[in-house]
Amino acid sequence: MEPDCRVLSIQSHVVRGYVGNRSATFPLQVLGFEIDTINSVQFSNHTGYTHWKGQVLNSDELHELYEGLKLNNVNKYDYVLTGYTRDASFLAMVVDIVQELKQQNTSLVYVCDPVMGDKWNGEGAMYVPEDLLPVYKEKVVPVADIITPNQFEAELLSGRKIHTQEEALAVMDILHAMGPDTVVITSSDLPSPQGSDYLIALGSQRIRRPDGSMVTERIRMEMHKVDAAFVGTGDLFAAMLLAWTHKHPNNLKVACEKTVSAMYHVLQRTIQYAKAKAGKGQKPSSAQLELRMVQSKRDIENPEIVVQATVL
């Protein structure tokens, strides 16, 4: 019998919808992982709605929850997964927890989505406090094994702008040098030969050969854009990348193809549902655009590959 593979996920939580831990839990369970969740926030729904209510966990409360696990000797994990965080002291406490978990399991893998901002109309902007950036650069990224920034976040972390694929590869090398063996730039505004309807993602993985030498695998993916603003997709991406890199540890191409293809199926199902619910000519609401996660169970388990990666 295959031993349990257990994930500690420290992310946001919503009562209704799919972001943070709600986006990560179902796909990881479907793919065979045990997942324990600490909710950095608990909101009624995501903040893209007109109204939301809820509570925010502080660093002392995070420490208290972790201490409870520790006292019962159930703080043994194979993976840690983190996403959106707004507080620098909370993020620093996450790092302390990751370091302690790595001391007791040297093969633990930390998957970090360094959520800080994005680009709109070509201009980048942070949507977390700026004091989080040095914490990510100096404390988080050095202990992470897999990171999934978008282009703007990769630029922030590396201190370098990306205008070409060559510059993106150089930025990934800088991020590798900071600590992580796997870097996936989940989205970029690099031009696609297939036209403006396509989005470019890039991945880079350092693999240690049996003789101790390192080889770097690089891939490029071109994904058709979906004309809608979804919430929780980055959380879903990071969770599925965790799962598929676990199942294909030295094959970033296959892991990313399965991750991105599953994303494609989920988003297509979601937009079709949202448009049907909204009615002809009407803009779908935030509630209608919640990811169709349960309905996509088969695609998450065994995605039909519709996006293929090019090895660079």
UniProtKB/TrEMBL annotation:
Alphabetical GO biological process terms: pyridoxal 5'-phosphate salvage
Pfam family for this entry, one: Phos_pyr_kin
EC numbers: 2.7.1.35
GO cellular component assignments: cytosol; nucleoplasm
Main EC class the enzyme belongs to: transferase
Signal peptide: none
Pathway in which this enzyme or protein is active: Cofactor metabolism; pyridoxal 5'-phosphate salvage; pyridoxamine 5'-phosphate from pyridoxamine: step 1/1; Cofactor metabolism; pyridoxal 5'-phosphate salvage; pyridoxal 5'-phosphate from pyridoxal: step 1/1; Cofactor metabolism; pyridoxal 5'-phosphate salvage; pyridoxine 5'-phosphate from pyridoxine: step 1/1
Sequence ranges assigned to domain Pyridoxamine kinase/Phosphomethylpyrimidine kinase in this UniProt record: 94-273
Reaction(s) catalysed by this chain's protein: pyridoxal + ATP = pyridoxal 5'-phosphate + ADP + H(+); pyridoxine + ATP = pyridoxine 5'-phosphate + ADP + H(+); pyridoxamine + ATP = pyridoxamine 5'-phosphate + ADP + H(+)
Cofactor(s) needed by this chain: Zn(2+); Mg(2+)
Domain of life: Eukaryota
Subcellular compartments: Cytoplasm, Cytosol
InterPro entries: PM/HMP-P_kinase-1, PyrdxlKinase, Ribokinase-like
Keyword vocabulary terms for this entry: Acetylation, ATP-binding, Cytoplasm, Kinase, Magnesium, Metal-binding, Nucleotide-binding, Phosphoprotein, Sodium, Transferase
Entry keyword Lipid biosynthesis: no
Principal localisation: cytoplasm
Keyword Cell cycle attributed: no
GO MF annotation: an example: pyridoxal kinase activity
Subunit composition and interactions: Homodimer.
Family in the record: Belongs to the pyridoxine kinase family.
Protein purpose: Catalyzes the phosphorylation of the dietary vitamin B6 vitamers pyridoxal (PL), pyridoxine (PN) and pyridoxamine (PM) to form pyridoxal 5'-phosphate (PLP), pyridoxine 5'-phosphate (PNP) and pyridoxamine 5'-phosphate (PMP), respectively. PLP is the active form of vitamin B6, and acts as a cofactor for over 140 different enzymatic reactions.
Protein name: Pyridoxal kinase
Taxonomic classification: Eukaryota, Metazoa, Chordata, Craniata, Vertebrata
